[in-house]
């Protein structure tokens, strides 16, 4: 505190004017906390540069804390009965059910696999219908790559670029 007592009134006014101009854009609480931190740890009167340094460090700490992602479990929901869907998929795959192939699904399948026939479209009807309506793009630039095995089954692979 002896430094501030040694300052003449003109220098003190200039100091507070610069201080006010420099830190008026900051929250008063943040500036007060920075000055309190400096007065508790430093031996000298807080300089403008030191206050600026502490405010920058505190802002960096806040940004780092805000970037930390914590896992939030999904909302609980009731169990769904998937047996109906699985039964329908199995019937389609085994050829027990012949779904009507729409022009949209047929065009989508022909675009991916030019030599595909209706039998293979029916065998892979669930996958083709899903990606025909939902598209193959995923969040974050990833996408689904569809390819056909030797047995005629269409398999999905997720491709993550980078």
Structure commentary:
- The structure is a single chain.
- With 162 residues, the chain is mainly alpha-helical.
- Helices cover 56% and strands 7% of the residues.
- The protein has eight helices and two strands.
- It has helices at 2-6, 9-23, 28-41, 48-67, 83-93, 103-112, 118-123, 125-134; strands at residues 143-148, 154-159.
- The protein has a two-stranded antiparallel sheet.
- Strand 1 (143-148) and strand 2 form a beta hairpin.
- Helix 3 crosses helix 4 (48-67) and helix 6 packs across helix 8.
- The longest helix is centred in the middle third of the chain and has 20 residues, at 48-67.
- The protein is rod-shaped.
- The two termini are 57 Å apart.
- 6% of the residues are buried.
In short:
The chain has 162 residues and is mainly alpha-helical. It has 8 helices and 2 strands. Helix 6 crosses helix 8.
Map the helices and strands.
Blueprint: H1 2-6, H2 9-23, H3 28-41, H4 48-67, H5 83-93, H6 103-112, H7 118-123, H8 125-134, E1 143-148, E2 154-159
Antiparallel strand pairs: 1-2
Defining key terms:
mainly alpha, rod-shaped, 8 helices, 162 residues
Helix content: 55-70%
Structural class: mainly alpha
Counted by DSSP, the helix tally is 8
How much of the sequence lies in strands comes to 5-15%
Let me know the average pLDDT: 82
What is the approximate shape? rod-shaped
Query: What's the number of extended β-strand segments?
Result: 2
Radius of gyration: 33 Å
Please state how the strands of the largest beta sheet are arranged side by side: 1-2
Order of helices and strands: HHHHHHHHEE
Uncertain stretches of 5 or more adjacent residues: none
Give the N-to-C terminal Cα separation.
57 Å
Mind describing the biggest β-sheet?
Answer: 2 strands, antiparallel
């Amino acid at each position: 505190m002896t430094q501030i007592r040694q300052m003449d009134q003109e220098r003190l006014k200039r100091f507070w004017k610069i201080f006010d101009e420099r830190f008026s854009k900051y929250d008063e609480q943040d500036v007060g906390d920075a000055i309190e931190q400096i007065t508790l740890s430093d031996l000298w009167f807080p300089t403008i540069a030191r206050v600026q340094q502490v405010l920058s460090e505190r802002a960096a700490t806040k940004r780092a804390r805000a970037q930390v992602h914590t896992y939030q479990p999904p909302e609980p929901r009731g169990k769904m009965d998937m047996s109906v869907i699985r039964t329908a998929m199995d019937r389609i795959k085994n050829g027990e059910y012949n779904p009507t192939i729409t022009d949209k699904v047929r065009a989508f399948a022909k675009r991916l696999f030019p030599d595909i026939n209706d039998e293979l479209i029916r065998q892979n009807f669930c996958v083709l219908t899903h990606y025909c309506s939902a598209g193959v793009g995923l969040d974050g630039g990833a996408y689904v790559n569809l390819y056909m095995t030797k047995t005629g089954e269409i398999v999905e692979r997720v491709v993550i670029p980078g």
